[in-house]
Design goal:
By secondary structure, the chain is mainly beta. The chain has two helices and ten strands; from the N terminus they run ααββββββββββ. The protein has a ten-stranded antiparallel β-sheet with strand order 4-3-2-1-10-9-8-7-6-5, covered by helices on one side. Strand 5 and strand 6 form a beta hairpin. The protein is globular. 35% of the residues are buried.
Length: 155
Amino acid sequence: MIRIRGTTVIMGLCVALAAGAVWAESSPFVGRWHWNRAQSTLPPGEPSPNDLVSEISRADGSVTWSVTIVAPDDQPHVVTFDAAANGESHRLSSDTTASVRLTANALQVTFKGPAGRSDAQKCTVSADHQKMTCKGVLTDGAGHSASYVDVYDRM
């Protein structure tokens, strides 16, 4: 379960290329977000990243999301994700897929990995557009699940 959580954080949600000018200004999700360790809640036993920055550069009919995570071993990892926001599954790697659905006030992402593991999260942005909260559930493929909350501050 830790492996898919790490992959999910890297993929994220949990998604940095140019956005269409109209949507970039009107979508509250577009922007650079810094993970707030103090306000976030990790699943039990999950190691905390040293740092995490999420940049959503497009959030309209598709979502473009780039995540830079500094793992506990201080190694930075960057992953980008670009997919239609229609709920259809898209392959991210040989063993991981993701689906994205975007509404006016929520960004839902589901990652599915090997052995039935998955991470489903729903992100919302505060009324002042300064905080993004992503609530998620990790499933290990054997019927065990754990909830978490990732909170991000706009940079």
